[in-house]
Design brief:
The chain is an alpha+beta fold. The protein folds into two domains: 66 residues, Arc Repressor Mutant, subunit A, CATH 1.10.10.10; 181 residues, Beta-Lactamase. 44% of the residues lie in helices and 18% in strands. The protein has ten helices and eight strands. The strands form two sheets. It has a six-stranded antiparallel β-sheet with strand order 5-4-3-8-7-6, sandwiched between helices. A two-stranded antiparallel ribbon has the order 1-2. A hairpin with a 5-residue loop joins strand 7 and strand 8. 30% of the residues are buried. The N terminus is likely disordered.
Length: 260
């Protein structure tokens, strides 16, 4: 008996994936009616699939508009795709060049909910670094609110997603200059959006500073961040940002051109 591909396919899976695919950078928030119309389904059928995807974390509902956006689990799928496209391998020669040019440790990071995870790391010249530099490694998890990479990743989130994420952050003092409130972080994120540069001035731990820039996909979404870890010196943070910002942003742009 010949194999029937159509019978073997899963209609539920196809519809679930079609719902996720309906969300794009141009259409980040969609309601039940929007989705039903786009997919040619009834409202009740659409609502059933959307409710399941929301329960599993693939969609989040905005309280104010009742529309839905892609959730954290959908971002996880995106990061898995980035992994399969070998983001680390794409970025590695650029990180090596950045470290060779500046002498400082460079890092590549992605966001996982309220934290960032280091996915690659190229160490700078030995003997220059704070002890924390030697405890960080590929796979290390750092709170986003007190790290430069975290701020670079938070700053470009859609406002409803950022609000929901900030609701889950407890602003604990990690270093002597840790951001102490949501309002203070929002002010910093606004500056990151204006300048394209995020900084950490002893916010994670005393004596440790860093500067970061976002990496974007071809669609324009921020998918990762690259940073330079700089040991403390009397030089003002603004001067360090002026000194290293251009080469850091250039590195981020070069990597972005290669990310699908």
């Amino acid at each position: 008996m010949p194999h029937d591909d159509s019978a073997a396919s899963s209609q539920s899976l196809e519809r679930g994936l079609a719902i996720l695919a309906a969300f794009t950078p141009d259409r980040p928030a969609l309601g039940i009616s929007d989705l039903a119309q786009r997919l040619g389904l009834t409202r009740s059928t659409t609502h059933r699939y959307v409710a399941t995807l929301a329960r599993l974390g693939y969609l989040n509902q905005e309280e104010s508009t009742r529309k839905y956006r892609l959730g954290i689990r959908a971002l996880d799928l995106g990061f898995a795709v980035l992994g399969s496209l070998e983001l680390r391998e794409i970025a590695a020669p650029h990180l090596q060049r950045l470290t060779a040019t500046t002498g400082h440790t460079s890092n590549l990071a992605i966001r996982d909910d309220t934290d960032v995870i280091l996915i690659d790391r190229n160490r700078g010249r030995p003997g220059r670094y704070h002890h924390l530099e030697f405890t960080l490694h590929v796979g290390s998890r750092i709170p986003s609110y007190c790290s430069a990479t975290g701020k670079a990743l938070l700053a470009f989130l859609p406002q409803p997603d950022l609000n929901a994420l900030l609701d889950r952050i407890e602003f604990l003092p990690r270093g002597p200059r840790s951001v102490g409130s949501r309002a203070a972080l929002m002010t910093e994120l606004s500056q990151v959006r204006r300048t394209g540069i995020a900084v950490n001035d002893e916010e994670l731990e005393s004596g440790l500073r860093s500067i970061a820039a976002p990496i974007r996909s071809r669609a324009g979404a921020v998918v990762a961040a690259v940073n330079l870890a700089i040991p403390w010196s009397p030089v003002a943070m603004s001067e360090l940002a002026d000194q290293f910002g251009p080469v850091l942003q250039s590195t981020a742009r070069q990597i972005s051109l290669l990310v699908i």
